[in-house]
């Protein structure tokens, strides 16, 4: 037997929040978390970066009952996502958020998941306010239908989805920990503070120009409209350097003949390509299958000598220490511009080529571990989305 659908407004009581005067500091020095769009991001709501005193709540906000669902009805975030969270500790909230208090027919967490699980449809109800903020009309949301099985089944569904959320939370914590470990390892290994087993020789302090040469990609004016094609030789600019990888765009490619005419700017395997405007430290090593691609106007090519290992040097150039040195030496008023002179004079500490390779391999292994965890997290999120679509609509029933 299928369960009935009900309108959200039939099974909830709605409360409005607010913001006490910012000019009265005494209202903002308490311990009661104040929830706004920026802090309504978790499935369970208990904390915020802003806190009110009881006096502040009394004059300008409202307490959300434990077990109610906080639901964002106004804000730019609504153009991209629905935000809702279950209140598990005493909190208050602002005027952009509503507290939905469920009646006895609804399991509180099931209500939260029901709203999040129907985000695709709720987003279609978002309109635009005068200041360009997204708005969800409360009457439309109150008339929005959700599936309502018996309360025991609601608890089971909420429990199943809660288990997946717990797994996602654990993965998030593990990924954050691994990222911190990687940052610490980079700081230690790239400066010689920590040495890998078997390496003891002194590091050499050299100008980068002693271990590499450089070329800027100034060929934009040399190309004509007829040189561009939908599926040709990629042109690489800083926007195409993503997480130290080259990710070309189909709209930025040229014909083979045009690329051959610009052979001085074609990339070779092992080159480092680095952005030269604005975002310092954005660089990547050219892989074998990327050889022949073109360096764009906003980028520079670093071609290493035999005793400079590209994968090691790329890590050094993207480190905070090197980025700061590049920014200090670079020129530009509104935007920093990296030039060959700056790169030539950049001071780098080089271990032996074997140690450079070993350091790069350790960091690459850490990257691979992080990527595997992030892929697992993405699959778990997709699994949760599929479960929500099945369980919150009655397509799949729990035993």
Summarize the structure.
The protein has 399 residues and is of the alpha+beta class.
Can you offer a commentary on this structure?
The chain is α+β, with helices and mostly antiparallel strands and 399 residues long. It has three domains: 5-148, DNA methylase specificity domains (Adenine-n6-DNA-methyltransferase TaqI, Chain A, domain 2, Alpha-Beta Complex), CATH 3.90.220.20; 150-178 and 352-399; 204-350, Adenine-n6-DNA-methyltransferase TaqI, Chain A, domain 2 (Alpha-Beta Complex), CATH 3.90.220.20. 34% of the residues lie in helices and 22% in strands. The strands form eight sheets. It has a five-stranded mixed beta sheet, with helices on one face. A hairpin with a 2-residue loop joins strand 19 and strand 20 (245-246). Helix 5 (151-189) packs antiparallel against helix 10 and helix 7 (310-317) packs across helix 10 (353-391). It starts with a strand and ends in an 8-residue tail after the last helix.
Describe the SSE topology.
Blueprint: E1 5-7, E2 12-16, E3 32-35, E4 44-45, E5 51-52, H1 54-60, E6 63-64, E7 69-72, E8 74-75, E9 84-87, E10 91-93, E11 97-102, H2 108-117, H3 119-122, E12 126-128, E13 134-136, H4 138-142, E14 145-147, H5 151-189, E15 204-207, E16 212-216, E17 228-229, E18 233-236, E19 241-242, E20 245-246, E21 253-254, H6 256-261, E22 272-275, E23 283-285, E24 294-295, E25 299-304, H7 310-317, H8 320-329, H9 340-345, E26 347-350, H10 353-391
Parallel strand pairs: 3-10, 4-9, 18-24
Antiparallel strand pairs: 1-14, 2-11, 3-5, 6-10, 7-9, 7-11, 8-13, 12-13, 15-26, 16-25, 17-21, 18-21, 19-20, 22-23, 22-25
Helix pairs in contact: 5-10, 7-10
């Amino acid at each position: 037997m299928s369960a009935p659908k009900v309108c959200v407004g039939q099974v909830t009581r709605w409360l409005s929040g607010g913001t006490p005067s910012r000019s009265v500091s005494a209202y903002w020095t308490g311990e009661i978390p104040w929830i706004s769009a920026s802090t309504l991001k978790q499935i369970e709501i208990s904390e915020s970066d802003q806190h009110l005193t009881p006096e502040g709540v009394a004059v300008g906000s409202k307490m959300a009952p434990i077990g109610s669902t906080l639901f964002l009805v106004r804000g730019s975030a609504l153009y991209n996502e629905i935000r809702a969270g279950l209140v598990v500790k005493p909190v208050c909230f602002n005027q952009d958020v509503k507290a939905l208090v469920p009646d006895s027919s609804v399991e509180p967490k099931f209500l939260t998941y029901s709203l999040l699980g129907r985000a695709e449809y709720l987003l279609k109800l978002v309109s635009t306010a005068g200041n360009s903020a997204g708005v969800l009309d409360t009457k439309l949301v109150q008339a929005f239908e959700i599936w309502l099985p018996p309360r025991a089944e609601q608890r089971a569904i909420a429990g199943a989805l809660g288990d997946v959320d717990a797994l996602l939370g654990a993965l998030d914590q593990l990924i954050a920990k691994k990222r911190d470990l990687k940052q610490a390892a980079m700081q230690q290994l790239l400066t010689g503070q920590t040495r890998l087993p078997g390496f003891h020789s002194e590091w050499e302090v050299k100008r980068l120009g002693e271990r590499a040469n450089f070329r800027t990609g100034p060929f934009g004016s040399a190309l004509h409209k007829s040189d561009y094609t939908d599926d040709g030789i990629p042109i690489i600019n800083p926007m195409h350097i993503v997480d130290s990888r080259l990710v070309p765009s189909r709209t930025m490619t040229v014909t083979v003949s045009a690329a051959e005419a610009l052979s001085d700017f074609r990339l070779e395997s092992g080159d480092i390509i680095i952005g030269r405007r604005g975002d310092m430290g954005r660089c990547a090593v050219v892989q074998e299958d990327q050889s022949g691609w073109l360096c764009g106007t906003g980028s520079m090519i670093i071609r290493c000598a035999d005793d400079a290992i590209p994968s090691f040097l790329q890590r050094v150039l993207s480190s905070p220490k090197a980025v700061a040195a590049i920014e200090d030496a670079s020129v530009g008023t509104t935007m920093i511009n990296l030039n060959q002179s700056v790169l030539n004079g950049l001071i780098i500490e080089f271990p032996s080529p074997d140690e450079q390779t070993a350091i790069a391999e350790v960091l690459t292994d850490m990257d691979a571990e992080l990527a595997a965890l992030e892929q697992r997290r993405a699959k778990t999120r997709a699994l949760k989305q599929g479960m929500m679509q099945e369980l919150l609509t009655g397509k799949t029933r729990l035993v």
